[in-house]
Structures are given as structure tokens and as C-alpha cells.
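User: Good morning. I'm curious how magnesium ion would be positioned relative to this chain. Could you predict the structure with it bound?
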Amino acid sequence: QKTAYEIPKRDWSSDVCSSDLDAWAQASVPASSAEPWTLPIQYAKGVGPKRAVLLEKMGVRTVEDALWNVPWRYEDRSKLLSIGQLAPGGLATVCGTVLRARLNRIPRRHLSILDVTIGDDSGSLHAVFFNQPYLEDVFTEGTRIMVSGPVTAGRKGWTDLRMESPRYEVLDDEDAPLHVGRIVPIYHETRGLTSRQLRTLARGLLDRHLDGVADALPTAVRTRQRLLPVRVALREAHFPQAPGDLDALNQGMTPAHRRLAFEELFLLQLALALRQRSVQQEAKRLRISLEAPLAARLRAALPFKLTQAQERVLGEIQKDMASVHPMNRLIQGDVGCGKTVVALLAMATACGSGCQAALMAPTEILAEQHARTMKQWLEPLGVTVALLTSGTTPKMRTAIRKQIESGEAQMVIGTHALIQKQVKFSKLGLVVIDEQHKFGVMQRKTLQEKGYNPEVLVLTATPIPRTLAMTAYGDLDVSVIDALPPGRKPVRTRIFTNAERERAYEFLRDEVRAGHQAYVVYPLIEESEKVDLKAAVEGSERLQKYFARTAAVGLLHGRMKGEEKERTMAAFKAGEIQVLVSTTVIEVGVDVPNATVMLIEHAERFGLAQLHQLRGRVGRGAQQSSCGLLAELPPGDEGSAARRRLEALVRSNDGFVIAEEDLRLRGPGEFFGVRQWGVPEFRVANLIRDHALLETARQEAFTLVREDPRLATPDHQAARAAMLRKWEEKLSLGLVS
Ligand code: ADP
Ligand code: MG
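Assistant: Good morning! Here's the predicted structure, ligand included:
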């Protein structure tokens, strides 16, 4: 069965002008009744239960998934030569007839060699296959085949040409060849499923099910953005026939790829637009008044003036608070830009109007620091501040829970402990979540549900590139604090190899002698926690010896008791400890302005973004700060990935620049472990390559939702169905009825 849509046959000798592409884009394809998205892949022809399991591992559950499982690269096996034109060296593809096939077995070496002689009008060639004796039945005399592979000279030289283990395909008169003689798609393989098998599968699915694929994009969007119909795009992505070069295919820059990427991005943005709308339509039950004097009194008590950026963001928050719909805002700003005080002023605004405000921080150390700051600034103004962490003793915990439930505690700071079931609020009006990237989306929701549709403010120092922010936080409004408080100097950073450890220590010592404080940070990951902890403990002992009696060295890690941690941190803050050896528990939030040096052990084991976060612990005052990256880099490793990452840090202090670099070097999946905080993976779209496309898709999606919030008109129903299929579960959209 021919599909309704004809693509011009690829003509290798002449150029096909690009207006053909426009013609395709304009044409529409009649719909059909089959539903590839409901058909489990197991029941597709040629699959069955065993292969279905393998396909599931690749995320392919339905026929639709399989159609979207596009090749990750392409090989040009299209240039057909006659056998007489061949010369040794290089890859070639030829067509011919099997003249004879000889199987030689060499039992002692467990070897079998099948020598197939292939001829055409111009000459002949030996195709040689090892240990595949069954191919004797494939290459029977007279069979027309196509082979593709490296050409070598045999024993008799140029007249005796060979191809060892070529890719081959038996030619049927009717079918166009699949595996050779064309631009051939290469698929990601999995154990038990080769690229060749996936190619055959794709061909079969396209032939049988493409007609049933409905176009998810509204016609207006498709026309405006000049996008191919989905069926053309899918077929072109698997078996390119349209003019275009191999590089464009391999970079995913063809009209077909653009179309598919757009659809993925568009559907996600559509889901986010709907979620945002549903949040906006909820009315809040607690009203916050901007007139209450508490916030103004706090502001007057601050030891500094807010920066312009802080003022602007605070203004945006207040506008949200004055609206009838709950705020849902992300405050993004590089480490040290002063997000805490902005959040505090928002909290004071809420408390001033008689609501409770909660602040959730990812670590105990950070929660304690916030509680200390708040108590210092707000208790004099008559506000009751409560702290609830996993380190809180059971007796205290019960008492604090009571305070929270009765409403006596007006500001509540905590860690994960805050989202436990037993914690009930009396009038929770504002939720602030610090360092959002450390929390999952679910946790954000749980805390949100504790209030009466409270205002939600999310703080992150994670310099998420705009494209990622649009996907991860696509339903939040974003404010950016884009300037540091006055007088800050960029942190000087340098790399030390392990051989330069002495120099690194001297550098530390000089700073401490000058009256400053220092952090020495060790990596700690769960898998190797014991070894990592030991390294940190030994590191602190070594430094104790090194500094002898000239400086006090402290140790801080996650395994210490809550009180002990607090005591150590307080001593460091008070300047009684000069050198704090720590694991990554100090990664986020910790604020000790007199600390001006940081030495990071095993810097090669950290992600770039994490290093930037860590480094953000210094450079918080007016003094020049420095950061040493001690790394195990093999000599002569110039240009290695590890060194390139570290050099990016030396070059820049700008979190956004570093994040973009990180994204480029590691790919979006690896970035900050984004998977866990919900950046989806795409099959075709690539957040780096397609950032412009993402912006367009977002605009189109948000416009569509504004015009047709229920996606009810006939031309929008396919989009709605496709969006729900993909995102309903993941984004818990119970909202489109
Ligand atoms: P982050 O945005 O990384 O959470 P913090 O809120 O911890 O940063 O602020 C970093 C430091 O800057 C703190 O010591 C804070 O008191 C100080 N700070 C914040 N705003 C200002 C300002 N406008 N002027 C001077 N110092 C400020
Ligand atoms: Mg902070």
C-alpha cells in the first residue's frame, strides 16, 4: 500500500530545488483510523514478547514510541559504483549478481570463510564473510545483492578486489534497498537488538502504521512555523529521501528533525501553560496586605541597602502577593547575590498580615543559618521564629509542631522535616523553598498542599540556562537578581595538580596568616561514603599537623550529630576555627563573609556547577578571595574533558556562563542531575541546539492556551490528546477536563 503522501524520488544526479520542501509542508495528509499510540509494540508485526522487552528498555512501549525512536546518526551508503570503477582503499557500495559462493571450513581454527563472487557488467569482486556459514543459503547463485564496505586488494593485487564482512542486502525487484545503496539510518543498539534489526522494524512500522499517525500540531501553528506534516517528518527522519547533506542529518538540522523537535517542545510547553493557568485560576484563601508595617520595619533594620536588582524582584513579588491568584515564582540569582533577604522581606510581608510563612532549606546547616539570621532580625520586632529539622530532639519536635499548628510560630524554618505528615499549619500563607534544585518537584507540591493555596517562592542559585529553566520551571514566573551587592571582587581560581599539593597548602597558609578563614572541601558521594569520609577525616588530621598551633582546624560532615555540627559551624562563624575541613555539606547557602580561601580536594570528581556553588562560599565580602582546585590530572592531559571543565571555572565567575559550558560538555541529562528535578528527556529535541526552537514553541503553546484554554476546537484536539498522553502523569495534570 502506497501512502497518500508521495515524496519525490531522490535523484542523485540532479539537484532537487528546496521549494519542494515547501510544497510538502503545505500539503495535508488525510487521517486514518488506526491508532499507533494505543498499539503495544509487542503486537506490531515482527516484534513479539521477547523483542518487546528489549524495546521497552529503550523507552519504546507503543508503535508511536517506536516511530519516534529516530536514528541517532546516518551513514551515506548511497554512492553506487560499478565494480570496474573500484580501487582498493575507502568505502564503496556496489550492486551485482552472485556468480558463485564457496564455503571453506578450517575446523582446527574454528573458522569458516564464505567467499562470494559478485559480478556486474564491468567486473567482479569477492565478498568475504567469516563464521557465518548460514549465509551460504542467502547468497545463492543468481541472487541480486548490494554490498557496502571497505575495498581491499587481494593476493593478486588490483585485479583481485575484496570486501571483508561488508554490509549487504538482498535486492528485491520491488522494494527499495534498506541497509545499503542509500543514506542509511543508524539506531542506538541495545543488547540483543541491532541497528539493522531496528531499521527493518522502522521500515515495517512506517509502511503499516504511518497512515494512522495524527498530526498533533494545529494547522495554523504548522503553517506559521513552516513545519512538515508529521508523517513526512517521521519517514524522512528514518529514511531520508529529501535533498540535504549528511552533516545536516547528523546534526539533526533537517526540516524533518526540526518538525519533530518542535512537536516535542510544543507539547511540553502546552502542558506547562495549562498547569500555570490552573494555578493562576485558583483563588487564594488568605489575603496578604502590603500595608502591614512589619516588612517596612525589617527593611529599616537591615545593615545594608537593597541593590536595584533586589528591589526590582521584591517589587515583582509584591505585585504577585497583591493579586487574587497565588504567586508561583522562581527567584534565580548567582551565589551571593542576596536572595535570602528578599525572601525574608516577603516572609515578613506575609507575617505582617497575620499569615504564617515557611522556609524550607535542603540541609540542616543551611536551615540553622537561616533560623539564626531570622531570629537576629525578626525577634526584636516581636516575631516568633521556629526551627524544625531532622536533628530536632523528639521532645522539642512535639512542642514545635504544636506551635506551628496553633499559629503561635509565625515563621517556620526547616528541612525535609517540614513536609512530614504530622506537621500541620494554622494559616500557611507563603512557602519559600531555598535552593530548589536540591528538592524534587513532588516535595514542592507537598509543602504547597499544606497551605490554603499559599504563595510559593522558589529560590535557586543554580544558574540554570534559560532553555533549561523554561522546561524545568516552565510553569513558574521567573525573576532574576542579576547583580551582586556592591564591592564584591571576582574569586581568583587556579588549578593545582596533585604534585603541587605543597604549593596549594602554602597558598592556604598565607591567607590564614593574613587573618582570613579557609574551607577545605572533600567530595562525598553515597556509593563511596566510607572511603570519602575517611579521606576528609585524614585530611583534617594532616592539616592540623601542618598548621601545628598556628591555626585551629575544624571538621564538619553529614554524619556528625546535629548539635555538634551546629557548634562547629558557630565556632567557624565566630572565627574561633580558622580552617574548616568539610564534605559537601557546606555546598549550598553557607554564608561566612570572612572566609576568603577555599581549597577543593579531588576537584575532578565534582560537576562544574557544583564547583561553582562551592566556590560561592568565598567572595562574600569586600576582600579578594581565592579558590584552589586540587585535581588528580594525569601529566600531559592538556585538553582532557576533566581539565577543560576545571579551566572553564578558572576563566569565569559567572554562573550562567559556567552552566552553559557544563550543559555543552555534559549534555542536559547529566546537568546537575536534572533528571531528578524533572527536566524531561527528548527523543529528537536537544536543548542546546534547539534553544531558539524552544522559545518559539513556548510562545505558540502559551498563545494557544490563551486563545483556547480547553483545547476544544477540532484542530486542537489532536494536540490535547498527544500532550495528555505524554505529560498528564508526569506533570500531574488533573486539570483539563
Ligand atoms: P544567596 O543569594 O547566595 O543566598 P545570601 O542571601 O546568602 O546570598 O547573601 C550573601 C551575602 O550578601 C550575605 O552575607 C548577605 O547579608 C549579603 N547581602 C545581601 N544583600 C546585600 C546588599 N544589598 N548589600 C550588601 N550585602 C548584602
Ligand atoms: Mg542562599
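The two ends are 38 Å apart (CA to CA). The chain has 23 helices and 22 strands.
Let me know if you'd like a different ligand tried.
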